[in-house]
Predict the 3D structure of the following.
Amino acid sequence: MPSYAVEQWLLLFYFYCFCGWLWESCYVSARQHQWVNRGFLHGPLLPIYGTGAISILFVTLPVRDSIPLIFLLGMLAATLLEWITGIIMEWLFHVRYWDYSTQPFNVGGYICLTSSLAWGAFSILLLRFLYPPAEFLLFRIPQFLLLPLAWGITVLFAVDMVQSFRAALDLRKLLTTLTEEHETIRRLAKRAEVLSAFAEDDLERFRARTQEERLLLAQRLEQAKAQHQQTKKQAQEELLRLRRAARLKASEAVAATLESLEARLEERASGSAVQSVQAELKEAIARLRTQQTEIKNRSFAPYRRALRILHGNPSAQAKRYRDALESLRTISKHRPFQKTKKQ
């Protein structure tokens, strides 16, 4: 086992982080047919690869002469790391940044046989082909550059980690908020339907007014007809505005119906049952009005950070917030409107 200084281990770690980012970004970009800055961070580093490579080196360098042991120990070390990292990240952010649930012989979707075998093959590739030239270049770095280079990259890496960690927490909060808003509108819309039936309202008309996706589709078609040329960022922000307007319209439709029902009940004779329904209506209306204020005041900044994460992790999953995640993913994949050529 070679004896490296701390700064040398750091440079090896960043080198393998970069190699992993380069491989993943090129592979995913080819599959997505557009450039994807793969991973959790803003910069060109994938820590899971750097940590995996260093872990593999620790367990395989003592048995470097045995390819079967390199494969086995490297596979076990990297698979364990991937499993632990996946569990921790999902626990922290409520999002699974990779998911092997559709792969055979997977464990909780965090690891699978195919991935483990790939880690074993990577261990051989690493030890026999990548590590020797990396070590050669490492020892060619002048001693006076070694320390400032390693710690300079570390400072940038730490800043990126903090920003990316905050962005991931923002994504978790945004998914939670969007899901709760949707559930509130859906639940109160169902309750309004029951009370509307009691008040002999037109249920079909009410349902049409409260279908958020139908409202969104109508606005989206109108926007598409305009055929404005936009950048991707502008197009995404326009879609976010449309979705916010659609959610506000759906919420307003439910609130207006509840207010109408409340006014009708006030005209009726008082009674414990009527008073109970009135109190329920007042509470529901107040909840919707508060929600509308929050939606109106919400900036696009957390949405933009969430879209960046989803663009870099196109396979991310969140079982608890599946609908909200898919809604954001649709915007993340959206391409700008383009002007049509004159005939």
